[in-house]
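Try it yourself: sequence plus iron/sulfur cluster, in.
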Amino acid sequence: MGFSYHDNADLLDRILTEHPEMEFVQLQINYLDWESEGIQSKKCYDVCVKHGKPVIVMEPVKGGTLANVTEDVEKLFKDYHKDMSVASWAIRFVASLPQVKIVLSGMGTMDMMQDNVSYMKDFKPLTDEERAIVFKARDIINSNIAIQCTACAYCVDGCPKNIPIPRYFSLYNSEQLEYKGKGWSNHGEYYDRLTQAFGKASDCIKCGKCEKICPQHLPIRDNLVLVAKQFEH
Ligand code: SF4
Ligand code: SF4
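Structure, out:
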């Protein structure tokens, strides 16, 4: 018996501490969300490692986003393995994590299934060199993100409305990168969960405290308006 999880790592730690009978956790993990403050893939994975719980991965290709990358990212992958699909890098990244026992990958065609089976059948984990290429791809993808927040969190403590600014920006950026052909995303679900414990983006009273401290000089107040427009309906 286990559960699928869309929330932060601290709560997951609490749940697994209070419910040691749980036998697995299903997490959204992919190389783009790995260190994201909004999704917290790595932090949640580390909690599962700490509690010794096997992990089932959902969204390894981020709903097709990591199969439909820009030309420069595709070239990076193809220059290294010309016969391996772009999606294979994303799936091998998660399947290489020791605590991962199952990878759930949505497939729409027989070709996709044959491609997935081709490298999962006799699975070889990513080498250090391949892992470095994956993170390089992630950095290229992230260099085009909408809000250039570094998630330093300096702005968070002084906010009178307790708004988790970097987490919201991370979700907003992920939403903008999402493969549009898919027609849906679950970032709104993560957003709704966060608003149960923290202030909403629209709660901002525009006091400006956060902008005074932001080392990136981001227009946080304007960006929160974008976040609210995206996720609050
Ligand atoms: S401007 Fe908004 S987000 Fe920034 S500190 Fe004030 S209430 Fe918080
Ligand atoms: S201070 Fe600026 S860069 Fe740092 S988390 Fe806040 S918004 Fe992002």
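One thing you can check immediately is this: The mean pLDDT is 93.
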